[in-house]
């Protein structure tokens, strides 16, 4: 019997049994239906579970997870919203000579990203862009060459940071002051007339490479600015919705970003103090920082017999840089395990590269954690994630594995430049970044009651109305960057 038939029979058996099965069996069926691409069946099954008498006896946390599954299925469908004809049209628009046989080859080889949803192939919205990023031959075929502007900028900044460090002896160098204006706009009638719209916007965190943080203004009163050391720092606002009108939140602030240039010596590294801080940042953190069988299998081939924490961290960083590629990512809230995704497919975006680095570091006893906000490279301003790792006596070191990936695969830089830049971004950062977060998957202050649009990171903001989350199609965001 096919999986679809088995799952349907299993669901009927569970229903007729009066929902006597424990909640873990319910989850087994939900996951199996979802993984099989039977989204309609999964949605119907979740609704039946919620209508059952047994549902009321489930723990509140399990009820919330079950309710979220309907939203999760819709999020996945939104990411994979292209049908086969739409995918074909996108590709032939830039490659008119593409044959059907070639197209089928791209599909069958999974060079195009797709899922089977309710019996149909549904393609990821960034499939075409990912094809050209991951496979240079196809980029050449379509005359879609990847820009080298970012790598040129990295090299010029490195020279500036190195020269200033050599002159001053300081680790934090070449500062840049920014004024940021962020706007979140809820579309008309996405919130009921008169309802209170709650808004969390990312705000600069107090970190070593960021100073002079100053809130300037907002179009509605600021209700709460979370503590400067909050793991995901936010500015919180509220505003009433008006029928037929957008609901807009806007704030401005200033801060100064510093580059970090501080070459380290493995010979000076000291043993860790096995205190609570060490324990916190070397533990698993489900679902993404998980010492899975794949992590345990691949780690020895990366670090070998190395015991020095700094050398181990650099081996992990270099492996990610040279053995994975960049690729636009699915929404993190839809991903079961980010690290295994990267290790399996050998590609990912900045946050996925950072999460993989964190997981492999922690598995090898090196404290590591998330760091994120925005990349502020001129004309390339966008969301960006990286990481930090800890070694004695140097402390917490910012590190950008995704920058390493771009450097390692650059067609512009010489091999010598690549080696220099890889080392620079392993033990430092440029000043082209806004840092708002220093951990992933943590609560805001004040706490958001509903499921977040991004349950890992905080870069775009979050919106809640009447205890319900508003997802990205219902509102948009914009960041204006001014260099002062």
Structure write-up:
With 484 residues, the protein is α+β, with helices and mostly antiparallel strands. The protein has three domains: 77 residues, no CATH class; 58 residues, no CATH class; 338 residues, C8orf32 fold, CATH 3.10.620. The protein is built from 16 helices and 17 strands. A five-stranded antiparallel β-sheet has the order 6-7-4-15-16, with no helix packed on it. Strands 5-8-3-17 form a four-stranded antiparallel β-sheet. Strand 9, helix 13 and strand 10 form a beta-alpha-beta unit. Helix 2 runs antiparallel to helix 3 and helix 13 crosses helix 14. The longest helix is centred in the first third of the chain and has 20 residues. The radius of gyration is 24 Å and the shape is globular.
In short:
The protein has helices at residues 3-16, 23-35, 39-51, 60-79, 84-94, 100-108, 127-134, 136-141, 149-168, 276-280, 293-303, 309-323, 338-345, 350-363, 401-408, 415-426, and strands at residues 114-117, 120-123, 172-186, 196-202, 210-218, 224-225, 234-240, 247-260, 325-326, 347-348, 368-375, 382-391, 395-399, 433-437, 462-465, 468-470, 475-483. The chain has 484 residues and is an alpha+beta fold.
